[in-house]
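Repro:
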Amino acid sequence: MSTQVIEKKTTKPNRERKKDPGYRVLLHNDPINTMEYVVETLMQTVGVSEVQALAVMMEAHTTGIGLVTVCMLEHAEFYCESLKSKGLMSTIEPAE
């Protein structure tokens, strides 16, 4: 009687994590609030500098939408909701 060895093929699971492409936090043009209020709100809620906040506000004012930041989904949702709670119009979208 002979013994037969059966080799089991094992494949390593792909443990490489997919990189989160990030999410864009967008600020929409605001015809109601003052430019100063929008800049102050961006600085307080997102933590950008005054220069960055001014640039985002001007982009939204001139083109209709300004890019606030690109970050992970959880942060993007937090920033978006924080801006909305201050009376600003904000949305998020995948950064892909």
